[in-house]
Request: fold
Amino acid sequence: YYYSVAGTAGYQHSDYALDANGKVIFGIAAEHTTTVVTGGQMVWKRFVKTFTLTSDTVISGLRIGFVSNVDGRGWKVVDNIKIEVGNKATDYSPSPYDNDYKIASQQVTIDGITNTVSNQGSSINSLTTRVQTAEGTLSTATNNITGLQSKQTQTANQITQEISD
Reply:
């Protein structure tokens, strides 16, 4: 893991891996006597612990503790904890399970967008129906006007014919 400290340089910490019953499997950082504190809180320090388990064991918890032992001030931040199988510590990388969570979160967002687009589609369909109805009404009105104009022309022609005769 990576850690950063602030406050007094003299402190005690007790970091342990626990099994399903809460029993300490091994100490993580409490075993080393010198903790790098140079750089203060602005510098992250990498701590690597390689260990061998004597039997198949499930690590079900981690306890990360910190106590300043000089003047009571200070803190420790731990980030990017990675437990891996093998005899070589590799750089931190996100857990595939974290990616599954991110994918699930993205799916919620996608579902929300899909619903919004679907609602907009329904609104567009409703508007399309209204426009088509209005166009039909306009077409009927146009036909009626054309018919009236034709009748007016016929009537005018008949009047003109009557006057001429």
Observations:
- Residues 12 and 67 are 5 Å apart (CA to CA).
- The longest strand covers residues 2-7.
- The helical segments are 96-164.
